[in-house]
Amino acid sequence: MNTDGHRCRRGFAGDRVVAAVRTTERRSLARVVLFAALAAGAMLAGAGWGESWEAIREAAASVRTVRASFVQEKRLPILTRPLRSEGTFAFRRPGSIRWEYRMPVESVLLTDGGDVRRYTKRDGEWAAEAGAGMEAMRVVLDEVAAWMSGRFDESAAFAATLSPGTPTTIELTPREEAIGRFVTRILVTLAETPGAVASIEIFEGAEASTRIEFQGMELNVELGDALFTAP
Length: 231
Prior knowledge:
The protein has helices at 3-27, 29-46, 53-60, 132-140, 144-148, 177-180; strands at residues 65-75, 83-92, 96-103, 107-112, 115-122, 125-129, 158-163, 169-174, 185-190, 197-203, 209-219. The protein is an alpha+beta fold. The protein has a single domain, classed as Lipoprotein localisation LolA/LolB/LppX (outer membrane lipoprotein receptor (LolB), chain A, Clam). It has an 11-stranded antiparallel sheet with strand order 6-5-4-3-2-1-11-10-9-8-7. Helix 2 (29-46) packs across helix 3 and helix 2 packs parallel to helix 4.
């Protein structure tokens, strides 16, 4: 048996997975902002137990900061197994967000005071990204203010349906064709614990989806400025 050949093939397969992760993330800069903004808004929604839109808005007003870790699984027709990513998320009112992937590819999205920046680690150093994708990210961030206030039902980009129960869910469907091209619907599942979100699932077509499960959520902890300004 040619063990070197097997090692090469395993290495090549691993390289293809990492390359797929990099390509997927780079093609979806706006989608990453969508994840981050939606996570913050949805966690605020959880604080109101999701009984009604009014209760969600009232509860959102009491939350200053959110911090959690997450596990993300992306399913694509070309993959036999989901692409798994892990990272951390932080939010501070009125609109500071840190969405960081720690594995398998290290990258971080930072928003603070309307400024949007994305960094990817290459050869042990953080490298800033720029381009048209960053403009798309700013467009998506227009939704953040409404979500941060718990006003899912007032979104100009998404129609929201609240389904109280065990568990409570919020379903978001795009109103605009431009958004519908990369997101067909979003399902937010609230946890039983006040202020906690169990998962967010983003459907990107008939066979493509991204599921994010949150863990170890903390509300109203102190979060310093550096967390949102430096990778």
